[in-house]
Amino acid sequence: MKTLYQVLGVSGQASSPEIEQAYKTGLAALANGATTLNPEERDIREKVVREAYAILSSPNRRSAYDEKLRNKTRVAELIVESSPFPWMKIVAALLLVVGCLYVYQVQADKAEAELAALEAKKAEAEAERAEQLALAEQARLEQQKLQEQRAIQSKQDFEIAQFRREERLRTERAQKADTQATEKAAATR
């Protein structure tokens, strides 16, 4: 909060003429600054300047006001001097910081463990998928091999059947030739 000296813009050792001059300057500034301030603000500031001047222009009132300021300063100095160093607050703050760091570390460790577990599950799933793909490929290769064997067997069966047909035709021709030769021999006899 401002002191009355600060309201008028003078030092605590200002003389009566300096205070009067500051008062007149303050009022003039408020009158000139009327366009930037609303009327209520201007009235309040004017009352404050007038009250400061009324107190500081009277020697008795000024000395009472100065005494009051000195007493406030002494009380503030006593409060500052009498306050012990806040060890407990510092210790509590340090404990709070350490606790927060501990919680953060625990959560970070937990998150890291969860991440490692997820990575392990992912690796396991990929291994299982690779195994399934390998089994599917193996089944496809076995099916292809079986089809090739069937094709070979089919070709062999076809070749055997064709050989037997040709053999039967040769046998039939040989028998026919023998029959004809026997018939010619019997006829010539």
Automatic annotation (TrEMBL):
InterPro entries on file: DnaJ_domain (IPR001623), J_dom_sf (IPR036869)
Residue numbers spanned by region Disordered: 169-189
Domain J: 3-69
Coiled coil (residue ranges): 101-156
Keywords (A to Z) from UniProt: Coiled coil
Gene3D superfamilies: DnaJ domain
Signal peptide feature range: none
SUPFAM superfamilies in the cross-refs: Chaperone J-domain
Keyword Ligase: no
Protein name: DnaJ domain-containing protein
